[in-house]
Specification:
It is a single chain. The chain has 12 helices and 9 strands. The protein is an alpha+beta fold. The protein folds into 3 domains: about 130 residues, 2-Layer Sandwich (Nucleotidyltransferase, domain 5), CATH 3.30.420.40; about 100 residues; about 120 residues, no CATH class. Helix 6 runs antiparallel to helix 7, helix 7 packs across helix 8 and helix 10 packs across helix 12. The longest helix has about 35 residues. The radius of gyration is 26 Å and the shape is globular.
């Protein structure tokens, strides 16, 4: 594990100077670069990822009495080291890969890309960007996100199996398989199949295997919903009191939001969800455009809730109809309702978290 040493400026010998250690993580290694408050690189080291990586990193960082860490992709490849650091109470921020890339391109060197330059860029972003998310130890929101992501995987697999099963039944049953295919409907259709050829017998056998897999996934989905309900209850959330927000939707929102206090206000939260339009003004012209960025999972959740409320909730329907009366198109009125819902959900989660942790409020 090679170590690169650079001469330390005198200012870095003062304990008041906080050194930022940028970390560029990979599957089999991670590279750390220490930088002072001017962005000057002090030292760099590459660590092989194994059971002793964390201990080696902490020991190396002790050279600087005052230091903090910045990890690229703390919710991705950097999750492991970021969580280990956060568990010790160390200051750790999450640096998005897009910001680190921009910082690297703005430095001298012709855009050269190495693990060390990436880690140095991560450190520089942490020095100059003051709204990075602090890495928090995993909590109930992490459980909710894991459960909802697992449910999405199960749902996608169920759709794939149903499509395959539908195709086989189309060839086995005169007139094809029924619409809205389920495990029970597929089982009923298969009971009437009498293969006339060896090919049809093969199709029937595969269909039976797919049916067994479908029943297994249905059972897993039922178990998952029970676990989600328990996890939402344990989180102390009242989101399910809102029209259009069930247990699964509440779990997805809470899992992706995490600690809502990381958003300074409702406007920042709406921007994060992609529900707030983006200012695209130029000169005297004032205009906004649709925000196609943001967290797409939260944006999708807001869209579904808005559609439900526009048709089945008195307050949501009244707001939607009022926007239509103002001359907005149905899509524009729905987007306005999404923006309003973002505020409502932000305030509701903030209230719930303050009640659960009054001392942190």
């Amino acid at each position: 594990m090679p170590t690169t040493h650079m001469p330390l400026p005198a200012a870095c010998l003062e304990t008041s100077v906080v050194i930022v250690i940028g970390i560029d993580p990979h599957k089999s290694s991670l590279t750390a670069v220490a930088a002072d408050d001017t962005g000057h690189e002090l030292a760099a080291r590459r660590f092989v990822v194994n059971a002793g990586t964390f201990t080696q990193l902490i020991s190396w960082a002790q050279r600087w009495p005052q230091h903090r860490f910045a990890v690229e992709g703390a919710k991705g490849l950097g999750r492991g080291i970021a969580q280990q650091l956060a568990a010790t109470g160390a200051g750790v921020v999450d640096v998005p890969a897009t910001l680190a890339e921009r910082a690297r391109l703005l430095t001298t060197g012709g855009g050269r890309k190495t693990d060390a330059t990436d880690a140095a860029s991560v450190a520089r972003v942490a020095l100059h960007h003051h709204r990075l998310n602090s890495v928090q130890p995993e909590d109930q929101s992490t459980i909710l996100r894991l459960l909802t992501e697992h449910r999405d995987d199960l749902t996608h697999e169920r759709i794939r199996i149903l499509n395959c099963l539908h195709g086989l039944l189309r060839d086995l049953v005169p007139g094809g398989a029924p619409t809205g295919l389920s495990a029970d409907k597929a089982a009923a259709a298969l009971r009437g199949v009498r293969p006339a050829t060896a090919t049809d017998a093969c199709r029937r056998d595969i269909a039976r295997q797919l049916l067994a897999a479908l029943r297994r996934i249905d059972a897993q989905l039922n178990t998952n919903e029970t676990e989600l309900s328990q996890a939402v209850t344990a989180a102390g959330s009242s989101l399910t009191e809102l029209p259009g927000v069930g247990v699964i939707m509440a779990a997805k929102i809470l899992g992706h939001v995490g600690n809502v206090t990381r958003f300074p206000n409702a406007d920042h939260f709406a921007s994060y969800t992609g529900a707030a339009p983006i200012d695209a003004s130029s000169g005297p012209r004032r205009r906004h455009r649709l925000n196609t960025g943001g967290n797409r999972q939260l944006n999708s959740a807001l869209h579904i809730i808005a559609v439900v409320q526009a048709h089945h909730s008195d307050l949501g329907r009244a707001y939607y109809q009022r926007k239509l009366g103002e001359g907005k198109t149905p899509a524009e009125a729905r987007r306005a309702l999404k923006r309003r819902l973002a505020n409502v959900i932000y305030r509701r989660i903030l209230k719930d978290q303050k009640q659960a942790h009054p001392t942190a409020a």
